[in-house]
Every structure is written in C-alpha cells, then in structure tokens.
Amino acid sequence: MMLHVENLQKTFDGFAAVSDAQLEVEKGEVVAVIGPNGAGKTTLFNLITGQLKADGGSIIFKDENLACMTPYEICRRGISRSFQIVNIFSRLTVFENVRVAVMSYNKRTFNLFSRAKDIDVSETGDILKSVGLFEKAGRISGSLSHGDQKVLEMAVALGNRPEFLILDEPTAGMSPEETRNALELMKLLSRDRGITILFCEHDMELVFSVANRIMVMQHGRTIIQGEPEVVRKDRQVQEAYLGGPDELF
Amino acid sequence: MVKAILSDSRALKAFGAGVAVFILLLFVPCFLPRFHVYLLGLIFTTGLLAVSLNLVLGLGGMYQFHHAVFYGIGAYTVALVITKTTLSPWIGFLLAPFVSALFSLFIGLICVRLSKLYFGMLQISLGSLVWAVVFRWYSFTGGDDGIHGISVPGIISSTSGAYYFSLILTVICLLAMQRIVNSPFGRSFQAVRDNPVRSEAVGINVKRLQLTGMVISGAFAGIAGSMFVVIEGSVFPELMFWTLSLEIIIMCLLGGWFTFLGPMLGAAIIVLLRTFVGIYTEYWTIILGFVLMLLILFLPQGVLGYFLEKFERSGMKQAQEEK
Amino acid sequence: MDFASNITVSALFQQTLVGLSRTTILFIVASGLSLILGVLRIPNVAHGSLYMIGAFIMYSVNLFFGGGQAGFWMAVLLSPVAVALISLAVERGLFQHLYEREHLMLLLFTFSITLVFGDLVKMIWGSDYRSVDLPAAFQGFFTVFGFPFPRYNLLLIIIGPVVASGLWFLTNKTRIGKIARAAAVDREMVGAIGINVSLIFAAVFVIGCFLAGLGGALVAPTQNIRQGMDHAIIIEAFLIVIMGGLGNIWGALLGALIFGLTDSIGVLVLPQFAIVFPYVVVVIALLFCPKGLLKSTW
Question: Which domains does chain A possess?
C-alpha cells in the first residue's frame, strides 16, 4: 500500500476538524474524497502534506510516517499537491511558477552562481504544454483568469514530478469546458504517467467518472471507503447527504 | 522570439551603459575636486550596503530591520585587526565579510524561526545587544568614542586610493550579487517572498533558504563596512545603531526595492541630500522626513521602480502597436 | 568573586527601588506603544518622539508657571494632553489613510514622522540640554537601610500601579475599551456590527500617545532633556512590548519590570555592561517564548 492514514485527528481551539480519518491508497489508483462542506477534507490534505501537524494518528507513506515531517520533506518523498484556494506565486510569470518547482525537484535551490534563465527550460516547457498553458508562459500569473490559475496550480504541483498527486477541488470555479479539460488531464496523468492521484471534489459526475475508489467523510470521520458502486449504494452515505439517492448522484 | 531578441538587445544596452559608466568613473579623480571624489566613495559604500540589504528585503521579502549591525561588524573587524593586532591590514579586509557572515548566521539562526514583524523585532533586539556591547566595551572597541585615526595600507590611504578601492570592490560585489539574484537561488528566494507556504509545498526548505540569504547579505554588508573604514579612517557605534538600519531601508524604498540598482540610487540621493542640504541648514532630516512621507503616500514602488514601470508600460504599448 | 563584592542586601534593596521607579516610566511608555500595536497594528516608532516632546513641554510649562508645586503639576497634566492633541492631528491627518498598508511601510512612515518631530524639537527648544527642577516637596531623600533614596522616585513607584489600574479599568470596564479589544481581534466584525471603527482607532491612538507624553513628563525631572532621548526610549519600549507579548498591557508591565530591574541590578554586578543585561534578558526570553511571555493579541 502506498498511503495509509489511520485514526488521524486534528483539533482547532476545541473544534475537531478531523476526528477519525482512515484512508488507503494503492499505487496507481485514483482515489476521491467526498463529503459535505466542513467534513474535513481540506484539513485531511493539509495534514498529509504537512501544512498542519496532526494531534494524533499516523500517516504512513511507503513505510515512512509523514506525521512529523515538514512540507518540504514530504514533497521530496514524491508527494505533490495543489490547493483549493489558488495558491501560486502571483507576482511571478507562469513560466517561473513552474520552474521554481522544477528547480526545487532538481535540487538547484541553493545553486548560487549559474544562470537561472537557461536552467530547466525544456522540462518546464513540457509541463506547460501538457496542461495547455504554454501560450501564456510569459504572463504574470496573478493576471490570469481563475480557470487558468487553477490549471497553473496543477502545473506547479507537476513540477515536482510527483509519484503521488493530491488535488484539492481541482475544478472549483472552472467553466464546463475547463472542467472537461482538467478531467482529461487527470485521466492522462493517471494512465500515461502512472501517477497516483488523491483528490476531493464536489462535482459528483466528475468523481464517479475518474475515481477507482471513493472515501466519504462527514464531521471529520471516515464513513466508508470503497468502489464507486459500493459507495453509491451505502445507506450511511445517502444519509450524510441528507437526501435520497436520486437527488444525490 | 521577438521578445527574446528584444530583451537580449536591452540587456546588451544595459551592459554597454554599465561599462561606459565604469570607464567614466575610473577617470573621475582626474577632474573632480577631492571632496567630490570622497563623496562618491561614500556613495559606493552606502550604496553597496543598501543593495546588500535589498537582497533579503526586496528579493526575499524578509523584514531585515537591523542590517547596520553587519555593516558595523565588518567595519570594526578591519579597525580592530589594524589597531589591536600585528597582522597585515589586508587580513582584516579578508576577515570582514566572514565575521559579518558569522554574526548573520548566529542572529539568523535565532530569527528565522519567526516571520515578518516578529522576525524584524527579534533581529532588532539581537542587533541592539551587539550595539550595546560595542558601545560599552571601552578597552576593546573604544566604547562610545569608537576608534579613530585608523591607518590603512598606504596604497589606499589617499582620497583617490580609497576611491579606487571602493569603486573596484563595489563593482565586484555588484556583479556577484547580480549573479546571485539571477541564479536558481535568487529565483527561489523570490518565490519564497511571493508565497512561503507554496514554496515549502514545492519542496523548498524555506528557513534554510532565508538563513542562506541572510548570511550572503551580511557578508556583503561586511565588505561595505570595511570600505567605510578606508574612506573615513574611523569607526564608531553609530554604525550599528538601529536608526542607521532604518535609513538603509529608506534608501531601498527610495530607489525601489523591486529593482537591483534602485537601492544604490536611493543611497546616492540620501548621501547627497545630507551633504548638500546640510550645508545650508542643520535641519536636513526634516526634509528627509517629508520626502519619505510623500514617497510612502504616493510612490511606494520607489523612484527607479516608478520609472521602470513607466518604461515597461510604454514599451509594451509600442510592442502592441507594432503588432 | 571580585565583581560581585559590592552586592549587599541593602544595596540590592536600594537598586531594586531604583529599578522600580525606572520600571514605571518604561511601563507607561511601553503600554501606550503596546496598545497601539495591539489594536491598530502600527509599529509606531514616533512614540519615542512623543515621549521626548512630552518631556520638553513639561520643561516649558513648568518654566511658564515659575516652577514649584503649581508648575510641576500643571506641567505633568498639560504635557500629555498637548501630546495627545498632536497625535490626534497626526492620526486624523495621516494615519487613518494608511491602516491597510504593510507593517514595513507603516514602520517607515512613523520613522519619517520621527525625523520631522526630531528637527521640530530642535527648532523650538534648541540643542542644549534642559532640566526640570522639582518642587521642594519632592526634593531630598528618604533613608532606606542607611542609603539615601530620592523622594521623587518613590512618587514614581506609586504612580506606576495607579496608571496600570487605570489602564486595566479602561480596557476591561469601559465600552470603548471593550470595543477596542474586540477590534484588535477582528476588525471587520466590529465594523460589521455598526461601530465606527475609525473613531475607536483614533481614540486608542490618542490614548496610547497620551501615555507617551505622560512618560516623558514624568521622566523630565530625573534626567537631562535632550535630543536623542527619543531614539533611546523607543528601542527599549519596543523590546519590552515584544518580550511581554504584543498588545498585552500586563505583558508590558512584566516586560518593563524585567527590563528595569535587570538594568538597575546589573549595575551592581558589572557596572560597565549594565545596559547590556536588559538586552540579554530580552534575547533569552524571546529564545524560549518567541511570541512574548504573555499571550499577544495578534
């Protein structure tokens, strides 16, 4: 098993954002985390990638416990992520945004005297081409449309050549067409490059069309994790969404 | 493609202008009066100090509130090696950047755990501690009097000798710093300024990067300090008083902290303002105060930053029209 | 241990009293600074200038009334009020447009005010040292353990707790204090429930600056009034506020106590480096509690 999260807990000022999260991800899988707003999905992701420190429980990634590591250490173990609220280098160009990640992956961050201008150009270009942002490489990223910024979010995450990619609501705020493109990209990454993907999303159609397995969270707890069909039929899940099965999916 | 050529020709132009200015500056002592030559040396020194600060302040976005400490330590290193030891004075000049870098490392190790205002305040406390020790340790540092009449090696003791010393050191340091700014390190540093959280998420060890930045910046400040000794022949605790640190920040602001040479321009403006307004009135700081207020209210990107922005905008317009 | 030979119980007691009177001044100035930092988030370097102006106005008013009890009390009363009026003008004229700026810009802006005030003081009062004569009642000494202890210092030690309880009352028991504390935590929320935050901010700023003026007025009789006293006090006040916890009045009191006492007792241990000790203590405190000893409002 690639990632195994057990009994994970996180409390903010007495409020248990994550109280008992369980998650299993096998290599090569695409796993979705769903649940109502405030279920603790983003907190869970922040715990896995080290932006937050867990109060209890364990996060085992390839036999190592990530719970006590810093975000950059976790990143170097092959986990990369995008953020729900756009979190890019907004004053840098699109190209530099991705190159920073590529240079970091290639361990050039502390290289003081070579010229950054000529470094990792083709690798960065390839990533931008693969997500369809190459035409806009010279733009200041803060001036991009929201949809493009979300795509850039993903491109920056790809700069680290992840084995394991975490996407926090990758299509939130995107137009239908942009959503379709993002979906294609996710399928491509999974199929052609063999990247393991963990994501959360409100768009159920999208979730059920790409995910191999689905984990459902409510009030900071994992209700169930399983195949889409199993999850779809689960009573608890239907109750969690406060509606009948028809309204849900 | 067009853009690449455009930026290349611009870089070439800038390089040519730089060489021309350097050659002009080489001949300055032949035709300018001695006082002006001295003043230019002082501008280089202060300018180098400001550019070194901007490495962490402008590029890295760190609140380096007490940069003057590293300047003062560089100056005192040279002064103490010359007056307290029998070593060659040149050893002092070699040591200055290392001692400053060492202090940067110590202070940095303590400070980088924090960020923004807390970082700056902790740095001010540590810097003030260094200042207080220097201010009181009469037997070693000369206390509040400082050390005067430091005899630097003959070749750089004359006004023009000191001038050439500061000119050449400044040029070398500026080239080195520009290289660093444009290196992968510099780019990463910029990314950290923009978004530290994301930087860490893409695998950058932010604290270590900031610490490295501080050490580099401190070393260059130390070199500037050693230049000060050559030009003035004395050191005193005011060199590491916190008001000087704020003055250097003002220079960066004045020139524009998103530009490489802006702080140099800011330093020149302040040194000239102090010298020439100081001739007419003893109240030159009130003028500086008003200038600074207006600047913050109306021109927060600085003088050079402002013109560059205008320049770029007109350039973009032109390019669009050509299309 | 040669360097500690002059530490005796009585000397320790006497230096503690000296330290406590110093603490009063430091606390009054630092609490004002802390208030402004905590609520308005302005690192107000000009606080030191207002302290200096307070001292100079104290000198002038005292002179105007011909000294004595009348002159002294009028001056102690009037100079903080004058400083408060100056700060009101500065806040309404300049600061209220700048609240959204970065801390760095605010710091530089207040520094520019420091530059302007510094020269204005030089223009008005000149560069000579000034001093204030105390009324006869406060002159002279008490004898404590056979050591003379200045009466005025005792007055200061009494004033300290008075100001502290006044501030406590203001922040905890009055409407404006409660709103200000709420605004310190969440500015938008307070604005959203229909309170004029701008006026609250102005009030807090003025009260903070009033304290700077009061500190200056009270310190005037104990030392030379001169240019540069603004630079000296502000750095100490900042360190105290940082050590105590930004925006926490009790933190300011604790910080001032530690600062004042290490300074005065340090004199007994190693006179030459007495001014170094408070800085060392601040650094040690911040090493272990980087965000201050008490809870900050940030």
Answer: 3-78+162-248 (3.40.50.300), 92-161 (no CATH)
